[in-house]
Write a structure and sequence with these properties.
Layout (H helix, E strand, L loop, with lengths): L2 H22 L2 H12 L4 E4 L2 H16 L4 E3 L2 H4 L12 E5 L6 H13 L2 E6 L5 H4 L3 E4 L15 H20 L4 H7 L4 H13 L4
Parallel strand pairs: 1-2, 1-3, 3-4, 4-5
């Protein structure tokens, strides 16, 4: 077994997946960005399994780059955590299949609350996509593992699209190094930037 060859092939498959998605981004991506930019509340990511883990990471990235965001677990949402979501929020629901039951079960309550729903799935004809105001299609066709089963290429591609959203929003909000420093006082870059402003006697 050539371990290095197999490992390299996995990475190559994930690179191919991201390149495919980068060519397929359309106006729905733009619509999602505009809606989030105009949002008066927060961005709420939700999902289950590996999609949920990606949602948690993206919520952290959004929040640290100037777009208030948090993560609500889809199952917990059905048992009271829907109360964390308001009519001013936008919910980004992540599901590769677009048929995750708990996410679909959230929709009637989200509609009653009045929160806008953006979905990210691999199928624009899925139940979740159809029931969302905006749908972003992220279809990698194949996973990177030898069984074509483990969420690998698909989750990497969703992560890349989410990172792209966060960066675009950060630019639109004119998010600067100084803002980054305020949100990252424990990091080396944050400490350096904060120290620089303190030495100059500037307001944060």
């Amino acid at each position: 077994m050539d371990i290095l060859k197999i490992g390299t092939k996995v990475i190559e498959k994930e690179i191919e997946a991201i390149e495919k998605i980068s060519r397929e981004l359309d106006e729905n991506f733009v619509s999602a960005i505009n809606s989030i930019h105009d949002c008066k509340g927060r961005v709420i990511f939700t999902g289950l399994g590996k999609s949920g883990h990606i949602g948690k990471k993206l919520a952290a990235t959004f929040a640290s780059t100037g777009t208030p965001a948090s993560f609500v677990h889809a199952t917990e949402a059905l048992h009271g955590d829907l109360g964390m979501i308001t009519k001013d929020d936008i919910v980004i629901a992540i599901s590769n299949s677009g048929e995750t039951k708990d996410l679909l079960d959230m929709i009637p309550s989200l509609n009653l609350i009045g929160a806008k729903i953006i979905s990210i799935t691999s199928n624009e004809k899925s139940s979740l996509a159809i029931k969302s105001e905006i749908h972003i299609k992220v279809d990698t066709k194949k996973e990177a593992d030898h069984l074509n089963l483990a969420p690998t290429s698909s989750t990497t591609a969703v992560l890349a699209v989410g990172d792209a959203m966060a960066v675009v929003l950060s630019i639109l909000k004119d998010f600067k190094k100084e803002n980054f420093a305020v949100f990252h006082p424990g990091g080396s870059l944050g400490k350096a930037l904060l120290g620089e402003k303190i030495l100059k006697g500037e307001d944060l």
